[in-house]
Amino acid sequence: MWLTLLYSCTGGAALLYALYRWVIPAAVQYHGGLALIWHDVIVERMLDTLTQSTRPQRLLGAVQKNATRGDPCSVVKAIDHFCRHKEWAMNVGDEKGCILDSVVSEINPATVLDRLPPHAKLITLEFNPDFAVIARQVIAWAGVQLVEGASGDWIPKMKEQFGIKTFDLVFLDHWKDRYLPDTKLMEECGLLRKGSVLLADNVICPGTPDYLEYVRNSPRYESRYFKSHLEYTKVEDGLEKSVFLG
């Protein structure tokens, strides 16, 4: 009897692990909504409870264990490995990261809001104070400084606080409902010049329809869509590159 019960428990545990580790992740690979619910709600909350830690804290541990301090490439590599093989998290990802790198190389920006080449000036914003605590530690390994606060509050202060005249490149990858109002705010504040590039992530999944409608139909922008996938899945997503025409 006890042996039968033991076999049943072992078999049940093995089945649950297989469902968690392989079956369900494979099943949601092609459906954006299901992928986000599974990874960003169910799995995250379960692991938060089991480990008594948060996903950002677990990611930070992976960076500190596997990345070299002061080496941004090793930090990105550690994050991508953690998110692809350990625990999914929404970030640029390795596939769209290549597109981002190509745009950065193409325009060779000197002033960037959220990503930079060597010797350029980077300003990255984080609204959530809990995430900011972790983000500061993660990016400290890459030698980047983070500013905590809402984008809508900081954009009007950029010129005064950081001596910014205009941005060469702005990478939009924050709250999707802020893409459009923050773009318009940067226009109003004179932070975009002729040739400034906006590069927006996750324009398909979760999606930014109001932003896409604006930049694709406004005579002030010339836009191009780069088809890709939601990070670490097979769900279609992409980046929208919009050049400000003045």
Automatic annotation (TrEMBL):
It comes from the Eukaryota. InterPro entries: SAM-dependent_MTases_sf, SAM_O-MeTrfase. GO terms for biological process: catecholamine catabolic process; developmental process; dopamine metabolic process; methylation. Transmembrane segments: none annotated. The keyword S-adenosyl-L-methionine applies. Keywords: Catecholamine metabolism, Methyltransferase, Neurotransmitter degradation, S-adenosyl-L-methionine, Transferase. Belongs to the class I-like SAM-binding methyltransferase superfamily. Cation-dependent O-methyltransferase family. This is catechol O-methyltransferase. It comes from Lates calcarifer. The gene is COMT.
